[in-house]
Design a protein that fits this description.
Blueprint (H helix, E strand, L loop, with lengths): L1 E9 L5 H5 L2 H4 L3 E13 L4 H4 L2 E8 L2 E8 L2 E3 L2 E10 L12 H8 L1 H4 L3 E15 L6 E13 L2 E14 L2 H11 L12 H10 L19 H18 L1 H6 L3 H20 L8 H36 L4 H25 L2 H14 L16 H22 L5 H20 L8 H33 L3 H13 L1 H19 L6 H9 L1
Antiparallel strand pairs: 1-6, 1-9, 2-3, 2-7, 3-4, 4-6, 5-6, 7-8, 8-9
């Protein structure tokens, strides 16, 4: 069995020539090129996919090679996976798989007897051998071609850095060098996963945050690493949709992912190594600004302008103001796409991935002297709750910034509870999250209404006709605004009544 360690990157189809001008390729000690045709197999019910197993036949010259792979660990584009290869003798032969349990499973009649082709990949691969440092060898593979299944086809355009010898850090050093003048964001979806989605005709859709599988036995740094990698994946899985689609949810989910990562960095700050936050905070702030401009205008249009325009369809001033807002929205979306296509976005993800793949995040078992995760999490959660209570005491309905600060505090507490949700027994965590989400939503509506006037006046400019439309919108939303403000005292009581579970005691009770 061999273990393959690779870092996969996306290359824009029109940027291959620019990429190949990088000096690293001129320093290659070897170069070869060949076409590769691969056919992937599974059962009719996709049993291999559900088990995390890949079975592939790949044509090499005049012969075919059989490969079995197991997806053991993949994060941020970096993949570690065991694989077993053998010549294909015109029938599947799993004798080369030295994992007895896997071999027996593959040889079962309900698996081996029901295998059929699911999709095909066809691409030209160019391979360079690089020796960028002593005792370090990396194969750089540039693939360009297509995936096909059931009459559907998608293009392949990706760069793979395979570690032959040396440390994983060397992969990131090379990737960051290549990404200095070229956008090369990590590629999270393998050719196989894309092939399965193509065979199933799975439509592209925004990806939401998911539960992070942290464990009470993890160290705080190990837990942060899992959370950060999940946030980076959440960010990148929505990148393509944000660049190619007008669906505002992609940008929203990228914004949520960035906020969650910043919240995690803030929560785990006492445990993070020196310089970690300083490396990531500036590019994350820049990304948030780009995403925020587009998202604010999306909300302004959908939640503030459109309801009034629908209620007053014969009002030309509203139609003209809606056009002005739309123009600014399209400009903001274009700017966001521009930012997401720049090398800086790739460098942010690669830098974060590099930092998370080295010490102290990767350390031998038992090497940490950090406090237990439950103790750390309990202390930080209650500190966040204390901050929320202070903000609630300072909140005033006649001072919108105080409500905005309260909303931010609630959001940070909610994210923290979501991070540690798997360690909270029973339904108490989900109940608190639901309550906090409702409070955050209502305060968010208030903030949108409070800031809408300023943003609308910017869109209206000096045009008196459009400024009258702004006044119409403000009047139409006035009742709703007052109703929301009237609910604030009751909402503040709910905040003061929140009872966070003590994680240490809850965990002990759960074990008992």
């Amino acid at each position: 069995m061999a273990q393959q360690i690779t870092l996969k990157l996306t290359v824009a189809e029109d940027r291959h020539a620019a990429l190949l001008k990088h000096p690293a390729f001129a320093a290659a000690t070897g170069r070869e090129q060949h076409p590769l045709v691969s056919i992937y197999y599974d059962t009719g019910r996709l049993a291999l996919r559900r088990a995390g197993i890949l079975l592939r036949l790949r044509k090499q010259g005049a012969s075919w090679q059989q490969t079995v792979k197991r997806q053991d660990d993949s994060s941020g584009g970096l993949t570690r996976r065991p694989e077993w290869q053998t010549p294909y003798p015109n029938h599947f032969d799993f004798a080369c798989v030295d994992d007895a349990e896997l071999r027996d499973w593959l040889q079962r009649d309900k698996i081996a007897g029901r295998l059929a082709a699911v999709f095909e990949t066809n691409f030209r691969r160019t391979v360079w051998q690089l020796d960028p440092a002593p005792d370090t060898r990396i194969l750089v593979k540039l693939d360009r071609g297509w995936i096909a299944s059931n009459g559907r086809r998608e293009s392949i355009s990706e760069l793979e850095l395979q570690l032959v010898s040396g440390s994983i850090e060397n992969l990131y050093v090379l990737a960051l060098e290549l990404a200095q003048s070229q956008a090369l964001p990590p590629l999270l979806l393998s050719k196989a996963e894309r092939g399965y989605r193509l065979s199933l005709n799975t439509p592209a859709a925004p990806v939401r945050a998911r539960d992070v599988p942290i464990d009470a036995n993890d160290t705080p740094l190990a837990a942060f690493r899992l959370i950060a990698l999940d946030c980076l994946a959440h960010l990148q899985l929505n990148h393509d949709g944000a660049v190619r689609s007008d669906d505002a949810e992609y940008v929203h989910q990228m914004r949520v992912a960035t906020r969650r990562l910043r919240a995690a960095m803030r929560m785990f700050r006492p445990m993070l190594p020196a310089g970690f936050a300083e490396h990531l905070a500036p590019p994350l702030s820049e990304l948030m600004r780009a995403l925020g401009q587009a998202r604010d205008l999306d909300v302004l249009m959908a939640e503030i302008v459109v309801p009034v325009a629908r209620a007053l369809p014969d009002e030309p001033r509203l139609t003209d103001l809606a056009s002005a807002v739309t123009n600014r929205l399209y400009a903001a979306r274009a700017h966001t796409r521009h930012v997401l296509r720049q090398p800086g976005y790739s460098q942010l993800l690669l830098t974060a991935g590099s930092l998370l793949q080295r010490a102290p995040f990767i350390e031998p078992p038992g090497a940490s002297t950090a406090p237990p995760l439950l103790q750390f999490a309990d202390r930080r959660l209650h500190r966040l709750q204390k901050k929320v209570l202070e903000l609630a005491d300072a909140a005033r309905i006649d001072y919108p910034p105080s409500l905005h600060q309260l909303r931010i505090g609630i959001k940070r507490l909610r994210y923290a509870i979501e991070f540690f949700g798997p360690m909270i027994p029973g339904r108490s965590g989900a109940t608190i999250i639901k309550r906090l989400a409702g409070l955050q939503d209502e305060l968010g509506q208030l903030n949108d209404l409070a800031s809408a006037g300023t943003l609308l006046m910017v869109c209206a400019g000096k045009d008196a006709h459009l400024r009258e439309a702004v006044t119409l919108i403000g009047g139409w939303h006035g009742t709703r605004h007052m109703d929301l403000l009237g609910d604030i005292p009751d909402k503040l009581k709910l905040i003061r009544g929140l009872n966070l579970p003590t994680l240490e005691r809850s965990a002990a009770e759960g074990q008992g």
